[in-house]
């Protein structure tokens, strides 16, 4: 990297956030002086003939969305294409204004309870966690390796989906199975979506005019994947996902909680292999398994037309959600707020209404008028008299990753 001798010397303030999936890379470039997005985009179907890159520059009021449809062979080619698009907007990865790259990493196990500057040792530990996150960590590792090769001199930070949940007490994190077996295979509840739960629980405290340490919050992250968490004074004390993201709520394509004996039953009676059952429970269950659709908009449309399967799927989804609200109410003892977030939580007013219906004795209620308002801003939807605030807080995992990354690389200890 070279800097023109005449260029003004400025502290780098930009962070590139990378979210690398098995066949996609999502990215955002943010300016940390005000959290503004400078560019956003994604490369999808990496490794296929039909790869696509969509890039949107957002500087100076925003530019035209650009699309490339040439095949992208692998993550290295994807990142190179992203770097070219950014460079075309004067935002290249070689810019002295780039402070760091923040990587979303799904599984950080027990070791990583905070964002961590990536070195070979950190990367090796993320690799050791592949057996407990076979679907996610390999793609995250590929993204990190590729970005490090491109900018070996730049600090790169891993922000773990599991980190926020490492404060869970042992009695919430352990399954009641033989301790030696559990420890030998690192079987315990880790939880996921932690970056979102951290961001939303903090924002909801702000909405109530309080410090996060003063409030107890139930966060309901309802996207295609879905999880609930109980957050006491800013610390997670329980969460619905477990060893993997399969446990807990009914999701778009995942079953959430089932009797573990369903697995042996399918093996013994239906002759299914564990890989087939894995696919069944992760990809063909949840809303899609129940009614054939995992998009809540489509399910609501079908319900409005009198479709019974869609109605039952919705009722099963809501019943599970309610059980977790009740459980986490009991875990927390006192609840100041319930916050809805992610695609369904932010947009589906009927889900919010149904999840809270009948819980007036717990101090929970939704104001129909406020619930119907569509807005990208965090907001309260409970009536003034309700003891517990009900909030909609749009999640922003990229901003949270960028903030954690930036504060780590600019901290005096770094
Ligand atoms: P996410 O994983 O957070 O991106 O959420 C994706 C899911 O949000 C989709 O599968 C839909 O079920 C849901 N969703 C998105 N927009 C809406 C909407 N306007 N109304 C209801 N559900 C929505």
From TrEMBL:
Its cofactor is Mg(2+); Mn(2+). PROSITE patterns: ACETATE_KINASE_1, ACETATE_KINASE_2. HAMAP family: Acetate_kinase. ATP binds at residues 26, 221-225, 295-297, 343-347. InterPro entries: Ac/propionate_kinase, Aliphatic_acid_kin_short-chain, Aliphatic_acid_kinase_CS, ATPase_NBD. Belongs to the acetokinase family. The gene is ackA. Homodimer. One of its GO terms (biological process) is acetate metabolic process. It holds the Pfam family Acetate_kinase. It is found in: Cytoplasm. Substrate binds at residue 104. It is an enzyme of class 2 (transferase). GO terms for cellular component: cytoplasm. Pathway: Metabolic intermediate biosynthesis; acetyl-CoA biosynthesis; acetyl-CoA from acetate: step 1/2. The record marks 193, 254 as: Transition state stabilizer. Mg(2+). Can also accept Mn(2+). Its EC number is 2.7.2.1. This is Acetate kinase. NCBIfam families: ackA (TIGR00016). The lineage of its organism: Bacteria, Bacillati, Actinomycetota, Actinomycetes, Kitasatosporales. It comes from Streptomyces ficellus. It catalyses: acetate + ATP = acetyl phosphate + ADP. Mg(2+) binds at residues 19, 397. Keywords: ATP-binding, Cytoplasm, Kinase, Magnesium, Metal-binding, Nucleotide-binding, Transferase.
